[in-house]
Here is the input.
Amino acid sequence: MDLQHHDLGLCTDLDALDQFLSVKGKFLVDAGCGNMHLSRALATRGANVLAIDPDPIQAQKNNQADIIANVGFVQTGADAIPVESCSVDGVLFPYSLHHIPMNLYPAVFEELHRILKPDGFVYAMEPVADGKLNEVMRLFHDEQEVRRLAQQALDTHGAAYFEQGDVITYRIPIQYGSWGEYADRYANKSYNTNYTEAQVRAMAVRNRFIELGEPSGYSFESPMKITWLRTLRKPPATRTPA
Here is the structure.
């Protein structure tokens, strides 16, 4: 599969999405939705969204949250999406693909192949393990290997299941007011964490954050990579029924 490459420079996630995806009237799955912030943005752009997340703590929060028009939520993983075969226009993974255990990737892509329409797409938004903020985070939460495996899965299974693809890169500007603001952001996360608050607030993490951030007033750039896969290789009739 030949991939077209696009570099957007400084950009936000939603600005990148708006440049490449037209979601109005589409039925989309927000896989690993977290607090459904992307689901909400997609719905405001005219999409109907099924938000899914396997994490029980986040699922409880989502079930208790205010109803979002045109968004439904189900606690499940991307390997078991409760929709009919060939019924989904697109599946988005917002910073979530690398949280899927490596052994589940074959089942996840088989499930994507089942639920997507022949002209459906996968839009995987993955942070790149590089840059100053990554230097800080890896002191308490090193995701370099899981992000590498996620990209490997996209490359391998993407070529097997899809005809077309694009790679979109950009850098997100991120501003923190202080070390405390940064520490609070990660210490208060209740899901997808393999670290403790004490590890986040460790002196080594604090010192590195200040060393790298103070010269710029704690202004950072976070590199991102989107893999956008389109057009299923196999005809719908060959797929396993739901």
Summary: Residues 179 and 206 are 7 Å apart (CA to CA).
